[in-house]
Amino acid sequence: MQKRLPDYLKRPIIDTEKTRNVRKILKENCLNTVCENARCPNKNECYTCNTATFLIMGNVCTRNCRYCNITCKKPEPLDVKEPLHIAKAVKDLGLKYAVITSVTRDDLPDGGAEHFANCIYEIRKQSLDIKIEILTPDFKGDINSLNTIIKANPNVFNHNIETVKDLFKAARPQGNYDCSLKVLKYIKDNSDITVKSGLMVGLGETFEQIEKTLDDLKLAGVDILTIGQYIQPSKQHLEVAKYYTLEEFEILKELAGKVGFNYYQIGPLVRSSYRAAELV
């Protein structure tokens, strides 16, 4: 039996001139957002603030993570003009802080690292003052791909661990917990880029397992942490094992501080890029 969604996880639909303008700009530039494709609960709040998280390299994924709403199937070839469209949308929206994520593209030799880099370069052509955060796949841990990202020098590099080690294979069957940690550590050890990661709770993990994961992330050099509640996108996805209470999210904040994180966003509706600029 499906668990009932608590009231504190529900968000109203907002339709204003601002939200319509954001949708219009995205449509005019032929862009996807993770806000729409992953059914983010904070979409309307972000649109109201005139911002969105860009989803590059298409809207289908080569991996079938069992918590994610993005479709898994053979992707289309890369749109080489997409970095130009991203830069134009950033300008049209008047963004001072741009967040770019992507589907996983295991079909590409570099996993799409150069495409990420090109998006960064195009944005920087119009202004060096715009801060850029990227949320990337693991690139299968490929060092050349990671060096491509380091050379492009985003302000923040984000790669989500997503869940605790004991649940990793169930949630991310084509991923690898240790590989994700190595990716984070490589960026930290070889650049001055701020490193960020996050996880979902509610998949059946224990507080002890969460603490071990936070310890692992801290050892990998992660600077910024996010934790939010997993919400099942459909009946075909992993079921929610537990909805954390507001009091338990306060305990998670205490745990993050205990492990040594000074910068974090932790709460029921927190997602990877939620209020991202506030933490930088």
Could you characterize the architecture of this molecule?
The chain has 280 residues and is α/β, with parallel strands linked by helices. 36% of the residues lie in helices and 15% in strands. The strands form two sheets. Strands 1-2-5-6-7-8-9-10 form an eight-stranded mixed β-sheet. The chain has a two-stranded parallel ribbon with strand order 3-4. Helix 4 packs across helix 5. The N and C termini lie far apart (41 Å). 44% of the residues are buried.
Helix-strand blueprint:
Layout: H1 17-28, E1 32-33, H2 34-37, H3 43-48, E2 53-56, E3 60-61, E4 71-72, H4 82-93, E5 97-102, H5 113-126, E6 131-135, H6 143-152, E7 156-158, H7 168-171, H8 177-189, E8 194-201, H9 207-219, E9 224-229, H10 246-259, E10 263-266
Parallel strand pairs: 2-5, 3-4, 5-6, 6-7, 7-8, 8-9, 9-10
Antiparallel strand pairs: 1-2
Please name the defining characteristics of this protein:
280 residues; alpha/beta; TIM Barrel; eight-stranded mixed sheet; two-stranded parallel ribbon; 10 helices; 10 strands; 36% helix; globular
Question: What is the CATH first-level class name of the domain at 7-198?
Answer: Alpha Beta
Q: How does the major sheet shape up?
A: 8 strands, mixed
Strand content: 15-25%
**Structural class by secondary-structure content:** alpha/beta
What are the segments in which pLDDT stays under 50 over at least 5 consecutive residues?
Answer: none
Overall shape: globular
Alpha-carbon Rg, integer: 18 Å
Oligomer description: single chain
The percent range for helix content is 25-40%
Name the CATH superfamily classification of the domain at 7-198: Aldolase class I
The count of strands amounts to: 10
Could you please say which CATH topology of the domain at 7-198 applies here?
TIM Barrel
Question: What is the number of helices?
Answer: 10
Distance between the termini: 41 Å
CATH architectural category of the domain at 7-198: Alpha-Beta Barrel
How do the SSEs run, as a string of H and E?
HEHHEEEHEHEHEHHEHEHE
Mean pLDDT: 87
Strand order of the largest sheet: 1-2-5-6-7-8-9-10
